[in-house]
Specification:
This protein is an alpha+beta fold and 244 residues long. Strand 4 and strand 5 form a beta hairpin.
């Protein structure tokens, strides 16, 4: 397929995925998708990207708007981007990071965006049998309550990425703001390059930076756990991870 034809097909699939396609073109393209596993796969990728946009709590990384606004003042005077447009750029960057992780096998950086996303579910209540954990768990790995540490559960979400079920609980502290805690079902995810690694009680905790957020990841009973926050420091996250 020539590049022009490929780009035209991908644009049509994007319109089908987001519902902006016309009725006549929709019918023709749906027949083509039904007859081609390659087109069906590309349509599924488009729909997943749209779902990510809807899920991510879109916020431009710190300093992005300022850096873009300082560049090329002459061009800026001729064509000024709106703040909404710059935020859209940030959203696209986040999506590309997730899709890149998928193309090389899901890793912690691709999953950590979920711990920074918005909640879609109510927070799980405390466990009836053990007050130090919540009633939510992944394969027996429970989420902590952290009430005695000054944190309260404020929301949750449930996702699936590349066959991995990901459960996330969000917590908030008056001092440190919001933290997302994700537990990934299935085989452990690759960590990739870490900013630093700490070892305690036989557990390795990797610290990463992602779009201005701090991420700490480790493994509990063979499951990948991820803590991510834009307000809490690595030291705070490591303390919470050690408690969990």
């Amino acid at each position: 397929m020539r590049n022009r034809d490929r780009h035209s097909a991908e644009a049509a699939l994007a319109r089908l995925a987001d519902g902006s396609i016309g009725d006549a073109e929709r019918s023709e393209l749906e027949r083509a998708v039904a007859a081609s596993s390659e087109l069906a796969t590309k349509l599924d990728e488009q729909r997943r990207a749209i779902a990510i946009v809807a899920a991510v709590d879109v916020e431009a990384p710190a300093g992005l708007l300022e850096r873009l606004d300082r560049r090329e003042p002459a061009r800026r005077s001729r064509r000024r981007l709106s703040r909404r447009g710059l935020i859209a750029v940030a959203a696209v960057l986040a999506i590309l990071a997730i899709l890149a992780a998928r193309s090389h096998g899901l890793d912690v950086r691709g999953e950590a965006h979920l711990a920074l996303a918005r909640a879609t579910l109510a927070p799980p209540p405390p466990s009836a049998s053990d007050h130090v954990v919540l009633s939510a768990a992944v394969d027996g790995v429970a989420f902590p309550a952290w009430r005695g540490l000054g944190w309260r559960a404020t929301g949750a979400r449930s996702d699936a990425l590349d066959g991995h079920s990901v459960e996330t609980v969000f917590y908030r502290s008056s001092e440190y703001g919001r933290v997302g805690y994700s537990i990934v079902a299935g085989s452990p995810l690759a960590i990739g390059s870490a900013q630093s690694v700490f070892h305690s009680a036989g557990v390795s905790y990797a610290v990463l930076k992602l779009d201005g957020a701090t991420v700490v990841t480790w493994r509990r009973r063979g499951h990948t756990c991820v803590l991510a926050s834009r307000g809490a420091s690595a030291a705070v996250l490591l303390g919470l991870a050690g408690w969990a």
